[in-house]
Each structure stands twice: as C-alpha cells, then as structure tokens.
Specification:
The protein has about 475 residues and is an alpha/beta fold. Helices cover about 40% and strands about 20% of the residues. It folds into three domains: about 100 residues, no CATH class; about 240 residues, 2-Layer Sandwich (Nucleotidyltransferase, domain 5), CATH 3.30.420; about 80 residues, no CATH class. It contains 17 helices and 15 strands.
Length: about 475
C-alpha cells in the first residue's frame, strides 16, 4: 500500500493539468486471498467514478476458441463452506440452497480443479478465498482408505538412545502386504531429536493408471502412477533422552535385508540429515533431502493423489488422518502447516515418501501398463493371496491353542515366513532376469507377450513355443 500510494502521489504532482490527472495507473494481480492488497483495495475504490475494475474468469476474457464450450460445475463456498467440484447428477438447486454459488468451468481445466479447487478458483476464475483454508477435505481422505492395516502395533512409539528397543520390534510382518513386496518402495524420514516426533513412512508404487484427459477439443490418454500406503510410525522421544538416528537407519536396513522390500529411495528432511544421508548412500541406498517446509510441492502432490484417488491409505492410522484433516494452507504464501497446538510429523513423512516416489520412479521399471482404476475406485483390498490367508489363519489359531502349544505355532509361522522370503528371493531373481530380457526386446515384442508367458517359457518350461524370442 505504501508503494502504491507513493507512485500515485508522484503521478499527481507531475502529470496534473487543468485539475485533471493526465495519466493512468494499472494494478494487475492474480487473486490470493480476501486479505490480499488488491482485493482489499478494490473494496475501498469500487464506487469511485475514475476507477475501472475488470474482474472476470480467464475463459470470459480470452479469445473465443481458447477453451471449448464443454463445461463442468464448481460449487464456490465461503468461510464456512469448502468449495468443491459438483458430481454428475447432483441437484444444482439443492446446492444453491446450501449457500454455494455455482460456476461453470471449461472442461479443459477440470484436472487443475481436481488437484486444488481453491487455488484454481484464484488463478483461473479470479475468485479469492479466505487467507487460511483447510488443505484436504475429510471426504477425500475418507474415500482413500482401504482395508489394509498399518503393520506397526502402535502408531506412536517411545524409544531413544538409552534403551535397547528397536523400531522393528513394533513391526508386525503378518500385516505386511506380501503381494507388493517386490513393488518399488520409497521411504521418507521426518527427523527430530528431542522436541517434535520423528515420522517414518513408506509408500509402494503399485502401477500406472490410464485416464482420459480433455485437451484441445478431444480426450487423450494420460498415464499416472498409482500408490499404496505401506506403513507410518511416529517416534516419540523418552523423557531426558534423544531419538536415535542410528535406530532409524537400522530399521530401513532391516526392511531391505530381512524382509526383502524393494526400497528404491530414502529421503530425509533437512534437519540433522546430512550424516544419515551419507550413511544411506554408503549402504547402497538412493538417498536424498526433501523439505516439506520450504516448498509446498510435496503436499500439493499428496493432495492431488488423494483427490484423484491414486493412493490407497491404511485404515488404522488415526493420528495421520487427524493430521491430514487439520492441515491448513496460507493462500497468500502457499505454505501448508498445522494449526496452533497441532502437529504434522507423520503427515510430513507420508507426503515426503509419496513425493520422493513421484520424482524418482522409472515407468519402465513397471514394464506393462496396468489398469488400476477399479482398485483405486473401491475400498476393497484386492491383494489377498493364499499365503496371506494361511498366515492370517495361523495367527488366529494362536489365540485358541493351549499355552504349551503356542510356541510351536509361533515357530511354524516363523518357518512359513522364512519359506516365503526364500520364494520371494527366487521371484526377485526371476523378475530381474525378465527385466533384462525385456530390455533386449522390441516395443512390439513387449506388447505381445505377458510376464506370465515369459515366466512359463523360461522358468517352468510349460510353453516352449515362447523360446522363439
């Protein structure tokens, strides 16, 4: 305001002739929030005769033909109502009665509005929102839940440098989705020593999903990654102690070398992370630094993935859900943060793991484009294998056997897990050989043969006709 006033006074002192200011001063700006300078200034001068205000959506002022005539509706809310996209078939009159204002938006912009409706309203429609808004709606988070459970027995654990406990002591391998063990996994550690909790999350990249996106007057296929939330744990510092950075690293080593998880990347925030990053790199991990505080990119990708139903969240991580639901975004600075007295350590680790995956996973590693539309659009767990059912039955049997037999059942489960791990190692070696084979094949050959057919030809010899390759 001081800058604007100073410029206007200089104009008046230099270009006023015959009592009339012979100059024009233009203020051009995108909307940010209701407290934004331009938005506030418009309210004070909108009735003055020498002021002209142009405030229209992009599609009303750009040349005809820039956007198509196809539209979808957005329900524009206020301080009490969150803006949202209107679902097909909804009663428009009922939406208006709830206090919403309806806005018809070109179909080309639907993807942007799905990713962030408030920011799209500001950038494309010129509609300002409150200075601080809820970042992700409860409905979006709730619809992303699946039936899988967090492998950790406690979502928040208290261990430090002075005790003998390890993070993996609280990890239940029976709850791990064994069908996804070979899928690329990315892990993020939101580090702390004494004050905040340390959050650690893992995310699987389970495939690619094909969607039809409207561009240039027609629909075109777009392939996007689909993810599954593998685990999240928050580590609380014991009184008078510190959180052990070494135990954090040992947990990641254990996941790769003991459980055989396909960990393709480990990221850390900037706090106390330089040494751990070096240690991970020396241990053969792809390690990087990702900050969720300096830029909102990680959280923007998490929000888009949830809104587009491209990630399946575990169903028993209430701490994470509460953190995600309570996240707020400052629409002037773009920063995503927790409310006063709140926290977001677990949410930071989840957003960091997902963002790390989006930056580093190679689509070629997935070989075949898989259609996961049905998987993501339902809350049913489709990854239940015979091994999962067998181990789950063994687990339930422990509660019904006499005390003297509990150990034998537990030993049987341990043996079964070892057998499964051995089988998994064989499968990983076969997968590695298949990848090497596919890299030598042409695009047409890759498209005409499935992994199952190649496995039958080269490992089970059930179909020797495939050996022509």
């Amino acid at each position: 305001m001081d800058t604007y006033t100073s410029v206007k006074r200089r104009m008046q002192s230099r270009f006023t002739f015959g009592g009339v200011l012979q100059a024009k001063l233009f203020l051009v700006s995108s909307k940010k929030s209701e407290q934004d300078f331009v938005e506030s200034y418009i309210e004070t001068v909108k009735d003055e005769k020498d002021v002209f205000i142009s405030d229209e959506p992009q599609w009303n002022v750009k040349p005809k033909g820039t956007f198509s005539d196809k539209r979808f509706y957005v329900a524009v809310g206020d301080k009490k109502l969150n803006s949202r996209i209107v679902r097909p078939g909804e009663d428009l009159d009922a939406i208006k009665q709830q206090g919403y204002r309806l806005l018809a938006v070109p179909l080309e912009l639907k993807k942007d509005f799905e990713r962030d409706v408030d920011r799209s309203l500001m950038e494309f429609a010129g509609i300002s929102t409150s200075l601080v808004t809820k970042f992700i709606s409860y409905d979006s988070i709730d619809s992303a839940k699946c039936s899988s459970e967090n492998p950790f027995t406690n979502n928040v654990i208290s261990i430090g440098t002075s005790d003998s406990m390890l993070i993996q002591d609280f990890f239940s391998t029976i709850k791990l989705d064994s069908a996804l063990i070979s899928k690329p996994m990315f892990i993020h550690i939101d580090t702390s020593l004494t004050g905040d909790k340390t959050g650690i999350s893992g995310v699987w990249v389970i495939g690619l999903r094909e969607e039809q996106q409207y561009q240039d007057g027609e629909y075109a296929p777009v392939h996007e990654f689909v993810y599954k939330h593998a685990f999240t744990v928050e580590i609380q510092c014991p009184t008078g102690d510190e959180i052990s950075l070494e135990k954090n690293r040992k947990f990641i080593y254990w996941l790769r070398h003991r459980l055989g998880l396909n960990i393709q990347g480990v990221s850390l925030d900037g706090f106390q992370s330089a040494d751990s990053k070096q240690q991970f790199i020396q241990a053969g991990f792809n390690a990087s630094i990702i900050s969720l505080d300096k830029k909102p990119d990680g959280y923007m990708y998490l929000k888009a993935s949830i809104n587009e139903r491209r990630i399946r969240l575990l169903n028993n991580t209430e701490e994470i859900y509460n953190q995600l639901i309570n996240l707020e975004q400052n629409n002037q600075t773009g920063k995503v943060d927790h409310p006063p007295e709140g926290e977001k350590d677990g949410a930071d680790s989840l957003a960091g793991a997902l963002y790390n995956a989006s930056l580093n996973v190679d689509p070629l590693d997935l070989n075949v484009i898989e259609d996961y539309t049905a998987i993501v659009d339902t809350n049913e767990d489709v990854y239940i294998t015979p091994e999962d059912k067998y181990l789950a039955q063994l687990k339930s049997d422990i509660t019904s056997v006499p005390k003297q037999e509990e150990q034998s059942v537990a030993d049987l489960m341990s043996t079964e897990l070892d057998n499964m791990q051995h089988e998994q190692e064989i499968k990983e070696e076969q997968d590695k050989r298949l990848k090497q084979l596919r890299s030598t094949m042409t695009r047409q050959e890759n498209a005409t043969v499935t992994d199952d057919e190649l496995e039958n030809a080269f490992f089970s010899h059930q179909d020797d006709s495939m050996l022509i390759f």
